[in-house]
Amino acid sequence: MIDFACKEFRLNDVIKCALNLTRADMKVIGLFFDTPEKWVNTEDISNDTGLDLSTVQRSVKKLHEKEILTKSQTNLDRGGYTYIYKLKEKNEIKEIIMQIVHKWVNKVDKELEAW
Questions:
Q1: Which of 28, 37, 43, 91 has its Cα between 20 and 30 A from that of 109?
Q2: Where is the signal peptide (predicted)?
Q3: How many domains is the chain partitioned into structurally?
Q4: How many of the other CB atoms lie within 10 Å of CB of 101?
């Protein structure tokens, strides 16, 4: 827990807020946190989390756009392809979150200065 003035925050709450994630997004990212070295496709994520495939697809797209997940293309034996995803290094994710937190702190500082 992180104690901030009048409220305690869990680290997952900070991650959720900083990255503007939904509960479904948090379920998806939680799966990746549990197996950070594993490449996973959206169907497996859907099965493991119990989330609808379209929900998982939106979540992995968002997490990839926020540079939390790495995406790779896998060619299928009978033609076509599928994407697989893996969690980026925790240090990279930490840096992304810290940049967001620092922007927030700077904004609060400016607002207090103008007050």
A1: 91
A2: none
A3: 1
A4: 13
**pLDDT per residue rounded down to tens, the chain (115 residues):** 666 667 787 889 989 999 999 999 999 999 999 998 999 999 999 999 999 999 999 999 999 999 999 999 999 999 999 999 999 999 999 999 999 999 999 998 999 999 9
Is residue 115 included in any domain, yes or no?
A: no
CA distances from 26 to 7, 13, 37, 59, 108 (A): 21, 10, 18, 9, 26
- Quote the Cα angle for 59-87-75, to 5°: 80
Neighbour-count burial of 68, counting CB atoms closer than 10 A to its CB (0-12 exposed, 13-18 middle, 19+ buried) = buried
pTM: 0.86
